[in-house]
Specification:
The chain has helices at about 1-10, 15-25, 35-50, 115-140, 160-165, 170, 215, 225-235, 255-265, 270-275, 290-295, 335-350, 375-390, 405-410, 435-455, and strands spanning about 55-60, 65-70, 80-85, 105-110, 110-115, 145-150, 175-180, 190-195, 195-205, 210-215, 300-305, 315-320, 320-330, 355-365, 370, 395, 415-420, 435. With about 450 residues, the protein is α+β, with helices and mostly antiparallel strands. Strands 1, 2, 3, 6, 7, 8, 15, 16 and 17 form a nine-stranded mixed sheet that branches. Strands 11-13-9-14 form a four-stranded antiparallel sheet. The protein has a three-stranded antiparallel sheet with strand order 4-5-18. The longest helix is centred in the first third of the chain and has 22 residues, at about 115-140. The two termini are about 15 Å apart.
């Protein structure tokens, strides 16, 4: 039967590309209030695809944007898999930087350019098309497949946990599968088995009641800008690039020898990576490779700095207030609550006299690592190899996906992340793209994954 399913996907691949274009034309920017109706329209589009495929589906309202829960129904045996994805997209940013309008999908050199093409409309559609193909060809799936597709991933999935908790029985599964991560390179598929956790903070330093003349008042009070520089400098060693927060590394899970060998075996071009970022040199925590630092070691970074005079020309002031937004990416066994506490203690200890410091919380989540030897993971490996003609590599990513520890906590299921987009697909940036071949290969991989799960 799988041969017929693959043949169906091949026969209708042009139609599937047109459907993705229709999906991408919907301006489902979840963070923009004026796009609320468009975002709902995208959810309705997803719900309609399932219904027309003969898959039971429901659009669930939330205090924000709706979720879709779909279910192919009981199967003859095998595990149950929950496919997760999202239909909301990032804002377009400066549209003058786009070579073609972000909501007018355009194919150039085998790539489909549009906002949301890779993150995540194109990738989640691969799984929807695979389930549809099984329904069209066989009238049922060999294993039970459920779907949870939300419209708030790009704004933190604030309403997802209540949906999962309320519908835990409906969403019960053995595995969660998702595609919101990249391939390793153009020809090599990848399974991401680990993501980092996150603690995101804001440090606000207050000084005088208003901006002051730096000539009249300089040297007589603590400048908040200087104080912030002292605080930030105390948190990171400029020579070793180690985080200096006391206790920061206490619970870090070491990189295993197996993982080190896996990373070493990857065909990773450090110079191309450097050139792609446009930086003169690669730096990071002393004693670790670039891949190890990126995917498996904790970090501290300044994300934004503001305060005082920032306009054209000069204005010699002592600022009344300055602030920095900072993030710490965490690895397994680091507790976000503990890291948050010791961070605040370190900041307050480093703050000079003469200023008032306030620390604001923005977000946090734990790291996640999935076992790589489960039956579901083995099925994913084989499915990707069949679809791409090359076995996938296992990688760890430096980004954070709060939904993964949430799924583990609420559903007791580990996640399998099959990446179909390019690592340089410009997600969140201008000229985001998704390979046309990856749309088709992704759908075939998902169809094979369903078949292989049934054989376990």
């Amino acid at each position: 039967m799988i041969e017929k399913v693959i043949a169906y996907l091949e026969e209708y691949k042009n139609k599937h590309l047109d459907r993705l274009k229709d999906f991408l034309r919907i301006r489902s920017v979840s963070t923009e209030p004026e796009r609320k109706a468009d975002t709902r329209k995208a959810g309705e589009w997803v719900n309609r695809l399932f219904s027309e495929a003969g898959i039971k589906s429901e659009l669930l309202d939330t205090p924000g944007h709706p979720c879709i829960i779909a279910d192919t129904g009981p199967a003859d045996g095998g595990p149950t898999v929950l496919m997760y994805g999202h239909y909301d997209v990032q804002p377009t940013g400066d549209e003058s930087l786009w070579k073609s309008p972000p909501f007018e999908p355009t194919v150039r050199d085998g790539n489909l350019y549009a906002r949301g093409s890779a993150d995540d409309k194109g990738q989640v559609l691969t799984h929807m098309l695979a389930a549809e193909a099984w329904m069209k060809v066989a009238k049922k799936l060999p294993v039970r497949v459920k779907f949870l597709i939300e419209g708030e991933e790009e704004i933190g999935s604030g309403n997802l946990a209540p949906v999962i908790q309320k519908h835990k029985d409906r969403l019960a599964c053995d595995y969660v599968a998702l595609s919101d991560t990249p391939k390793f390179d153009e020809k090599t598929p990848a399974i991401t088995y680990g993501t980092k956790g996150l603690v995101y903070k804001e440090i606000v330093v207050y000084g005088p009641k208003q901006n002051l003349h730096s000539g009249s008042y300089g040297g007589t009070l603590t400048n908040p800008g200087n104080a912030l520089a002292v605080i930030l400098n105390s948190l990171r060693d400029p020579k070793t690039n180690r985080v200096l927060i006391p206790g920061f590394y206490d619970d870090v899970r070491p990189i295993t020898d197996k993982e080190k060998q896996q990373m070493k075996a990857l065909n990773f071009d450090e110079d191309a990576y450097r050139q792609g970022m446009g930086v003169p040199a690669l730096t990071g925590e002393e004693g670790y490779t670039t891949l190890e630092r990126r995917g498996a070691r904790p970090t501290f970074d300044v994300n934004g700095l503001f305060g005082g005079f920032t306009g054209e020309g000069a204005s010699t002031v002592i600022p009344a207030k300055v602030f920095a937004k900072v993030s710490m990416r965490l690895v397994p066994d680091q507790d976000p609550t503990k890291i948050s506490k010791i961070f605040e203690q370190a900041v307050m200890a480093a703050a000079p006299k003469g200023v008032r410091v306030e620390i604001k919380d923005h977000s946090s989540c734990a790291a996640y690592v999935s076992p790589t030897d489960s039956a579901g993971m083995k099925a994913a490996v084989k499915a990707l190899e069949l679809a791409y003609g090359k076995p996938p590599v296992f990688i760890r990513e430096g980004g954070s996906l709060p939904i993964l520890p949430m799924f583990k906590k609420e559903l007791g299921a580990d996640s399998i992340m099959m990446g179909f987009c390019m690592p340089d697909c410009n997600a969140h940036g201008p000229n985001e793209f998704f390979g046309v071949s990856d749309l088709h290969n992704g759908a075939k991989a998902s169809a094979q994954f369903i078949q292989l799960l049934a054989a376990k």
